[in-house]
């Protein structure tokens, strides 16, 4: 069903990096969600009034708020698809994250309101009237919301959308909330205990937690979390496929939305190459990454002397020393030797993972001490990359 709707309403659906295509996916998600939620609101409100169930009526207004969320989703994708301008040179892609944040706040408000009404229902308990037609309508609601959740998850996977994942999570919340309502409705046949209110409280706590989790994840995107590991691996594979490039390090990628990534990296090139050849290697690599991965990367070439035996020997010595530091995966790059009259400067960078708690000074002292036992003329000049 999802694939059929995509084929019918989205042109060039496979071009998910295109902002207009993403907007079309957002419009499809919003339209389907809006129609489904308005239908469920009308159905549940009528059935809640017939049965006298506060949880059914609360569930109905939850669906109405979901309709508002669908409108927010549509507007969010429309704004995110706007091209870059003078005030926003990197585009408007991060509006998707703001849309997720708004949806999560809506989820939290629904959770608070359901909690309030459920507590009131426990304090001022009223008899819930069982009705077979109400039960059937609620089961129908569960089926529609379950499909809507799967529908949005599938769309989210196609375009890697945090907004649609939040929408899918909201639909799953509705499945749980309505299932709790069904439980309360059936239990009304056997007991006068306020199961209706108790189930409402349980569901509201679950909805509040879900809203909090989405807010936390969305704030990570807005603050700036690392791009997925596979993006970094794809960049490495793309660059190292060039036989003129020895190695790569200092990859920095900034995410300005799902479709806009900008960054920089350093590549190691044979120091015997002339400047024009090095420039051409960097230039063609930038074009290749942009063409294959749609990432704008500025490349900084670092000259490496691959033929000098003494340089290779000293580099291997440093590698052996840092490999023994508490099993942390430290690595070196930009290694070179500058010979002075009384000593030899070993100049290099060390990449230190975040989880390594050893101070930079302590690491340097350890390296210097190990080198002094080999040759007292060695002097290290180290840049630490954490």
Topology:
Blueprint lengths: L1 H8 L9 H33 L2 H27 L14 H29 L8 H28 L2 H26 L7 H29 L5 H12 L4 E11 L5 E10 L4 H19 L1 E10 L4 H14 L8 E9 L4 E8 L8 H13 L5 E8 L1
Parallel strand pairs: 2-3, 5-6
Antiparallel strand pairs: 1-2, 4-5
Question: Can you tell me about this structure?
Answer:
This protein has 386 residues and is α/β, with parallel strands linked by helices. It contains eleven helices and six strands. α3 (54-80) runs antiparallel to α6 (162-187), α5 runs antiparallel to α6 (162-187) and α6 runs antiparallel to α7 (195-223). The longest helix is centred in the N-terminal third of the chain and has 33 residues, at 19-51. 33% of the residues are buried.
Main attributes of the structure:
Alpha-Beta Plaits, single chain, 62% helix, 386 residues, 3 domains, 11 helices, 3-stranded mixed beta sheet, 6 strands, elongated, alpha/beta, Alpha-lytic protease prodomain-like
